[in-house]
Amino acid sequence: MNKRDARRRVEETIANRESDLLELLEELVSAKSVTGREPRGQAVMLEAFDRLDLEVDTWEPSVERLSDHPGFFRTSSYDEHGYDGRENAVATIPGEGEGPTLALSGHIDVVPADPESAWESDPWALRRDGDELYGRGVSDMKGGLAAMVLAVETLADEGIELAGDLYLQSTIEEEAGGVGGVLSALERGYVPDAAIIPEPFGLPNVGIASAGVMFFDVTVPGKKAHAAWGHQGVSAFDKACRIRGALEELNEKRQDRIDFPPAYGADPSLEGHVTNINLGVVEGGDWPATVPAEVTMKGRVGWPPGETRGEVREAIEGVIAEAADDDEWLAANPPIVEWAGWNAAPHEVPRDAEIVEIVERNAESITGEEGSFVGGNAALDERFYQRYYDVPVVTAGPYGPNLHGVDEYTTVSSLLETAQTLAVSAIDYCGIAE
Ligand SMILES: [Zn+2]
Fold this sequence. Notes:
The protein is of the alpha+beta class. It is built from 13 helices and 18 strands. It folds into two domains: 3-210 and 346-430, 3-Layer(aba) Sandwich (Aminopeptidase), CATH 3.40.630.10; 212-344, Alpha-Beta Plaits (2-Layer Sandwich), CATH 3.30.70.360. It has helices spanning 3-15, 18-30, 39-51, 63-66, 76-81, 142-157, 179-187, 236-257, 309-325, 328-332, 354-367, 382-389, 412-430; strands spanning 55-59, 88-93, 102-107, 127-129, 132-134, 166-171, 194-197, 206-210, 212-221, 225-226, 276-284, 290-291, 294-303, 336-344, 347-348, 373-376, 393-395, 409-411. Its EC number is 3.5.1.18.
């Protein structure tokens, strides 16, 4: 069989296998694998791999083995749940020739569905309404996992043997940083020549970049006093507001200065907001009638490719130090900045990488629409491949405008198009055995 016939056959077959796709997706959604509780979802994936008779490797990540890696940070999901029992799974479909190795990679964890009562139907039961599918994870990204399985199953059923190896992998804790997931798989030796991750960027758009993300705490000191003698105290809250003002000013300057068109390729409302500083938690004080002695603000900074983590840290620490210098109390009692939690660098894949061109071409021909290059505004698993292993990686997945939200949804048609794009791109990239 030549490549053209093979591609036509898998496209046709996948178009008729909606029920297989939905059956697996239904099981995956019901498995309720919120980050930290991946095993129930992973069990469904392992059964699917088993049905396909694939050789599978499973393992728990090890912090000791990962902690020296430049991409490592201790994730909140590790702190809360540890890694015991939280296995990753990689199935290898050996190639029958000398072609390059491709990984199809997806994460099995999902974010919580709270408040569940706000959903129109049970978030942990797949619901179909016409072409639309509802449920936690249908787009992010159990739909992508089901599409990956359907793609591989179809290649096997059509008797198409690839020339290069294919990794079919289901990993943990992407939503908490992916350190124990994709990074652990790469460190275990699953380093392909290229990778595709079907996160819901909405075909025919293809993702080639992701933002860097870091979390930080700013602890601002004050001086405790009874409210009646408030003039003798120093409100940490008032001082924190000065720091907040300085960060807000920095945020505006950065948003004026920093541009990155792929970040708003699929969502024009993001133009002018490709970098952002958010203060998401403020804690402080202990009594309404007491001047607060300490306030901690917990923030997140996100930024597109183009800056290093060091430069971003310096910018934030710099404006905080400057604001403190302008204030008599803070100059003598400087705020403390700590960087803890999320610590992910941005990534960007060259547009002329072979896998990018292949996936872009196939996504456009399968959907019949013109796509654009897009970038993720949050850190993605993709960064590990590109930044630390120089493996070009492209994001290509279903429609999913409402991911992480209430009534998360996608469409049957975009999931089938995803499976088609994955299967024909594997044929194009890995080649077909003689
Ligand atoms: Zn995702």
